[in-house]
Structures are given as structure tokens and as C-alpha cells.
Design goal:
Elements (H helix, E strand, L loop, with lengths): L4 H11 L3 H4 L2 E4 L10 E4 L2 E3 L7 E3 L1
Antiparallel strand pairs: 1-2, 3-4
């Protein structure tokens, strides 16, 4: 489940950077352009299974 390790490694290779240079990714919407969640941080790739805590994978 989730994104296979080999696929993640190909992504990092294609980008030319290690996970530590890509994550965390922070984002924010311009005030007034959105409602609800408008900012946050993505720490890596996540695997989510109903009823379980998200699993972070770099």
C-alpha cells in the first residue's frame, strides 16, 4: 500500500534532490481566495488506512 519505495526513489532521482531537500513542503492560500484549511505543511508521502494513523514515508 502507498507509494512503493522504488517509485519514491525514482522521483528523488528525477528531481535530483534527496527527500530532506524536498520536504517539508509548506503552503498557504491568499487571504480571501479560499475558505476552510488555507495553510499547512506536507512532511512527505503518506499512506492512509481507515481507522489507523497516517504513516509517513520519505
Amino acid at each position: 500500500m502507498g507509494i512503493p519505495k522504488a517509485t519514491r526513489q525514482r522521483f528523488y532521482s528525477a528531481v535530483g534532490k534527496p527527500a530532506e531537500a524536498i520536504f517539508p513542503i509548506t503552503f498557504a492560500a491568499e487571504p480571501g481566495l479560499a475558505t476552510g484549511l488555507t495553510d499547512g505543511e506536507v512532511e512527505g508521502f503518506y499512506t492512509m488506512v481507515l481507522g489507523q494513523a497516517p504513516l509517513l514515508e520519505l
